Amino acid sequence: MARRHCGVAALTAAMLAAPLVAAAPDPIASRIDTYRELGASFKAVNDGLRTDEVQPVLLAQAARHMRTVAQAQYGLFPAGSGPAPGRKTKAKAEIWRQPARFKAAQDAFAAAAAGFQQAVGSGNAETMRGAARKLGETCKGCHDSFRTRTD
């Protein structure tokens, strides 16, 4: 009888653990989702800055999100999440082959995101526009070097 209880306990433990294993996040899907959300924030910023009367509260929300992503980006490219047969990613292998160069691009983005958030806090529309351009340049620079083109 004791063996039967041990077997049931082991089976129950395995069944409870199975969803945890299945629910483990896919690093590529997480990365894609994060950058899509970042793109939506950047679109909101660009749209907001094209108007004559900027909305500082909306821009502050987007700036906060961008800064959060900038801080989280360092964990979005774990080893083993690069290009491989059967794996759909636009991340180039150079990310893992040239980690110092990639980290420098990440650092540039993080600094620009912090600068943009500070610019939004200034309330000056021209300062915000300039900081948004710098932020966009860091995105473009990283995409040019570390992301495959989409044609």
Structure in words:
The chain is mostly helical and 151 residues long. The protein has a single domain (25-146), classed as Up-down Bundle (Four Helix Bundle (Hemerythrin (Met), subunit A)), CATH 1.20.120. Helices cover 74% and strands 0% of the residues. The chain has helices at residues 2-22, 27-49, 56-72, 94-97, 99-122, 125-146. α2 (27-49) packs antiparallel against α3, α3 runs antiparallel to α5 and α5 runs antiparallel to α6. The radius of gyration is 21 Å and the shape is elongated. The N and C termini lie far apart (66 Å). Residues 1-23 have low confidence and may be disordered. Heme c binds at residues 139, 142-143. Residues 1-23 form the signal peptide. It comes from Novosphingobium piscinae. Pfam families: Cytochrom_C_2. This is Cytochrome c.
Question: What's the arrangement of secondary structure elements?
Answer:
Layout: H1 2-22, H2 27-49, H3 56-72, H4 94-97, H5 99-122, H6 125-146
Helix pairs in contact: 2-3, 2-6, 3-5, 5-6
List keywords for this structure.
single chain, 151 residues, mainly alpha, Four Helix Bundle (Hemerythrin (Met), subunit A), 6 helices, disordered N terminus
Put the structure in a nutshell.
By secondary structure, the chain is mainly alpha-helical. It contains 6 helices and no strands.
Model regions low in confidence, pLDDT < 50 over at least 5 residues: 1-23
Mean pLDDT comes to 86
The CATH H-level superfamily is: Cytochrome c/b562
Strand content range: under 5%
N-C termini distance: 66 Å
Protein name: Cytochrome c
Organism: Novosphingobium piscinae
Binding site for heme c: 139, 142-143
Keywords: Electron transport, Heme, Iron, Metal-binding, Signal, Transport
